[in-house]
Amino acid sequence: MRYPHLPRLLLAVLFAACSTMATADTRAVSSACASLEFMAKMLAVNTVLPANYDHPQQLADMQSGMSALNRLACQPVILTESTRFSSRYANGQPVSADLYSSAWYFPNGQLFVARPGRDTTIYYPNGQVMAFRWARGGQTLYWPNGNPATFSFRTINEAWYYPDGHIITYLAGARDERWFYPFARLDGQIGQELISSRWGVDGETFQAINYTRDGRMFMQLERIRDKLVLSDTELLDVPGVLLMLTRFYQAPDAAKQFMPGDSSITDAPW
Length: 270
Description:
Blueprint: H1 6-48, H2 56-74, H3 81-86, E1 104-105, E2 111-113, E3 122-123, E4 129-131, E5 141-142, E6 148-150, E7 160-161, E8 167-169, E9 177-184, E10 192-199, E11 205-211, E12 217-223, H4 232-236, H5 238-248
Antiparallel strand pairs: 1-2, 3-4, 5-6, 7-8, 9-10, 11-12
């Protein structure tokens, strides 16, 4: 018995399988690049708000290494055969044997991720673990200096801590909650200075840092409005929220350069 349509059917099945594999490969790279983008936020916060024992030069070197990985693996709009298999840093260190399915490395040879898109350990360029089971959530997340940022990341209503150990918030991922600055209250009372007791809520107040002419710090009430109005989902991205605050105070950071290369750059300038 002959099946005249069998060759076409087999070709269709083969094409669908190849398409599915290609989509999975692309998603794996996108996942690794999203992880690198989040790591850039963590490093930026640690750099702007370091602990007393942190070394600025080491943080700057980490920034350089992450930027190089981002440029070679995440900024190309598509991965050609050359960029996928043969990308190398200026020092000759390979980025990866295969960006779709093999380990990714920083310029100093330090492992970033053993396999993109998988539930595996994520490392900073200095060898510090960012998370042991990155894809799972509910695990401890570490700052580049080794201090815990939270004991259950991607979890609503969990506490987060600054790189120096001060509390950021007791309830991440929830609007209308208290967020704190990483310094003691200016009035001399016990506790940290409050950013807002109802952070992220439109029309509520927050305390903005100001300085007198002789350099003394004081707090001034401002209204939460525009981009400071945040959803529960946005408030779960604690490093991103902190960078929004540091940018409010015009502190520079390099986290924005880690936006994926396939995102649009052609929109109207307004």
